[in-house]
Each structure stands twice: as C-alpha cells, then as structure tokens.
Backbone:
C-alpha cells in the first residue's frame, strides 16, 4: 500500500495542528500507525490521497448510514447552496427536521438544535440541573458523552483509547458533582439512588454503549434506570448520539421500549454535516431559553445546510425494510468475523446491535468497561494494520464501534470477512 502522500500531509499537519489531527482518535496512535488522509468517498468506499481504496466501517464515526454522497443528500445540499449557507435566523427547515425527530422519537415533544453531540449532552445536563435544582450527575464508566468538563470522567472513546482517567484543565470542583458507575451494574445504581437519590439531577447513559467498543445493555438495566430516576425525581437522559436513527428509526429507546426524559442526538440527524440536538418532554424543554431560564445558544445552530442534509437522510431511513436490510448485513458480518476468529484460534468476542458492531480480543463476556479493557490491545493494533493493508478501514481504537451502512453490499461484507480470516490466521502464526 502506497502511503507517500498521506505521510507528507501528516508531516505538514503535525507542524500546525496538535497531533496533526482535529480529533484525537483519528491520529491512530493507539495502533502505532499514522493516519491515512482521505481524498474522497463514495457509497461504502473511502479513497485516500495516494489512490488507495478502502471499505469504510467508520462512516464518519456514525453519521454516514446511507453511505457517502447519497444522491438525495447531495441534491438537497445543492438546492440550499443556491439560497445561502447560514442566516443566524429561523428557517422552515429547522421546523421540518424538528418535526421529523418528534414524530420518530416517542419521548421527544420539543427539540433544540445545536452543532455537535458534545453540545447536546452538555446542554441536556445543564437543563436537568436547572429543572431539578440539583447538582449531582450519574454517568457510567466507558460511556463517552463528548468532551464537556462535567462528563470527562472515566470516559470512553479517545479518553479510553489513550488510557487516561480524565483531562488536565477540568477543575476537581466541577467533576466532584459527577459520579461514574460500572455500566450494566444495577446494584451499584440502586445503592447510590437509595442513599443520595434526592441529590441526583440526572442519570446520563448511552443506551447501547458504543464508545468502549460496543456493549449492549443487560436485560433490565435501562428499565431499572427509568424506575429509579422516576422514584427520586431525577431525570433520565439517553445519549442517542450514536444510536439515534441507527439501531432503529426511533433510536435505542424504541428498540428497548423506554421513555427517557431528555434525549441527545447528533451524527445521523445531520446527514454528515455538523449537527446535534436535545429534546424531551414539553414541560422540561420549556425551561430552555428564551421560553425558560436555562440558557443555551449557538450562532450556527439550525444551520440550513445541516438541516437539509439531515432531512434528506431521515427521509431515506423511512423506506420500507431499510433497517432490516442493513441489519442483516451487519449480522452476516458479525457472524463471519466470529467464525474467522474461531478458525484462527484467536480469542474474540463479537457482538452487534442493529448495524453497530463490536470486536474485542478477549475471551471474557464484555458487559462493562472493565471487561472491555481485558482486550489484547497489541493484537488489536496488529489486526487494525493488517486490515488496513487489505483495504478495510476500521476505527483505529479498540474502544470504538464499527458501523455498517445501507451502502455496504454482500460483496463488501464477504470481502471483509475474507480479509479478517487472512489477517487473523497470520496473527496466530
Ligand atoms: N470520539 C469520536 C468517536 N467516538 C470521534 C473520534 C474522531 O473523530 O477522531
């Protein structure tokens, strides 16, 4: 694989961008590689600056559920470009996307657009604190809710990838209000809620954890969170930044039939453009400024290009059989990867929820962050590099999920399984 141009670009990038990247995980440090620089993408394929092509399982970390450059999304963007790129004033498009979200997600009656998942979760926490008049927040180890100070505690994604507990620059006094508990540990939550329930503003959770690799919720876990928050007057926040419109059109809350008080979205609802949103019950959302007193604002919020791309994307997801078809391919991929690991004699755990996939190099059942951390990271790094060499683009971290899109065909799924088989066989030798 040629990498001359990517290497040259990376050398230039590190001189003027910290670590050469605008988000840490993509620097590929955890797998001991340098990033490939992308030139363009189409469907499920990425093409780098050196002319190499890859089957893409990152999908821009989730948003590209239709694949890259879907014709309807491109058309919608072209139409808006004719009219302007940002007005900082209300547009009809914002109402249209808000209505689509409200129609899709049962627990959401009102929604506020922001620009990223981080903004959505940060604003949701402020809202929960404002509504309840309480300060304490419960989150779960290995869940990542963006990089707002309050939530940068025992986090997943890049924080897990670099093996750091938190970040310098986050005052102790800020995170002393954040309690982080083991994911899926019903008793740990019950214990804290029994002792301090009346001080807890909210519990925030990834209903399917996707930032410590993929970890599905244990039966009863989400139900118990709903029950305990309800009993103590705390709010339940579902961070559906990854799972929203991904595991089902109505998100993980539709899949597991739970109604949180506030939900956070991003990724898919922007169709590949920077966007986020938080929404929930009307009586809660009416506390948001200017209707209420909880302040939150943004110059580019509701940006017309992002709204148009989001609307065009959600319209496609409504097609009959969309999720069934995509999920079938993910199931086939998960099954194939599992078999490939077994026949290579390599200990691995493969799981999927809809089109989100996890692949851990451990023999332990992965139900929380401690289990995820038993994964053999050296083996993962070798696997990542082997797969990249065979034209398969995976997230360069054990603590991220894979995403299958509607644009992946059986041919690409089979090619991926074959490549994994070859790489895993080589690794055993
Ligand atoms: N932390 C995000 C994924 N969970 C984005 C990583 C990146 O863009 O580098």
Residues:
């Amino acid at each position: 694989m040629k990498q001359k141009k990517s290497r040259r670009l990376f050398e230039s990038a590190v001189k003027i961008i910290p670590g050469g990247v605008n988000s840490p995980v993509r620097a590929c440090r955890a797998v001991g590689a340098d990033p490939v620089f992308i030139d363009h993408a189409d469907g499920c394929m990425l093409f780098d600056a050196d002319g190499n092509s890859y089957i893409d399982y990152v999908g821009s970390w989730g948003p590209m559920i239709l694949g890259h450059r879907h014709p309807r999304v491109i058309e919608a963007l072209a139409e808006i470009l004719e009219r302007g790129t940002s007005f900082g004033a209300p547009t009809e498009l914002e109402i249209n996307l808000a209505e689509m979200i409200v129609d899709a997600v049962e627990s959401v009656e009102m929604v506020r657009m922001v620009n990223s998942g981080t903004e959505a979760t940060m604003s949701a926490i402020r809202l929960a604190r404002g509504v309840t008049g309480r300060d304490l927040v419960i989150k779960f180890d290995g869940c990542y809710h963006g990089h707002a100070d309050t939530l940068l505690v025992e986090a997943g994604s890049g924080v897990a990838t670099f093996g750091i507990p938190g970040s310098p620059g986050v005052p102790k006094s800020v995170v002393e209000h954040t309690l982080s508990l083991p994911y899926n540990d019903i008793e740990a939550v019950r214990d804290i809620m029994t002792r301090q329930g009346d001080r807890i503003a909210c519990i925030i959770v990834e209903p399917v954890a996707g930032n410590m690799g993929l970890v599905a919720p244990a039966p009863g876990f989400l139900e118990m969170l709903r029950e305990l928050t309800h009993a103590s007057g705390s709010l339940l926040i579902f961070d559906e930044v990854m799972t929203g419109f991904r595991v089902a059109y109505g998100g993980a809350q539709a899949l597991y039939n739970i109604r949180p008080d506030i939900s956070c979205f991003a990724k898919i609802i922007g169709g590949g453009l920077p966007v986020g949103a938080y929404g929930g019950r009307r009586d809660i959302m009416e506390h948001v400024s200017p209707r209420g007193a909880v302040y939150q604002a943004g110059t580019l919020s509701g940006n017309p290009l992002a709204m148009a791309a989001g609307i065009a994307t959600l319209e496609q997801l409504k097609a009959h059989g969309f999720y069934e078809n995509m999920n079938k391919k993910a199931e086939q991929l998960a099954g194939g990867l599992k078999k490939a690991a077994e026949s290579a004699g390599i200990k691995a755990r493969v799981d999927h929820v809809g089109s989100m996939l996890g692949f851990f190099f451990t023999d332990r059942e992965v139900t929380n962050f401690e289990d995820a951390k038993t994964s053999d990271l050296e083996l993962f790094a070798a696997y990542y590099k082997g797969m990249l060499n065979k034209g398969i683009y995976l997230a360069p971290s054990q603590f991220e999920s894979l995403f299958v899109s509607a644009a992946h065909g059986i041919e690409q799924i089979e090619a991926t399984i074959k490549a994994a088989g070859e790489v895993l066989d080589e690794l055993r030798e």
The mean pLDDT is 96.
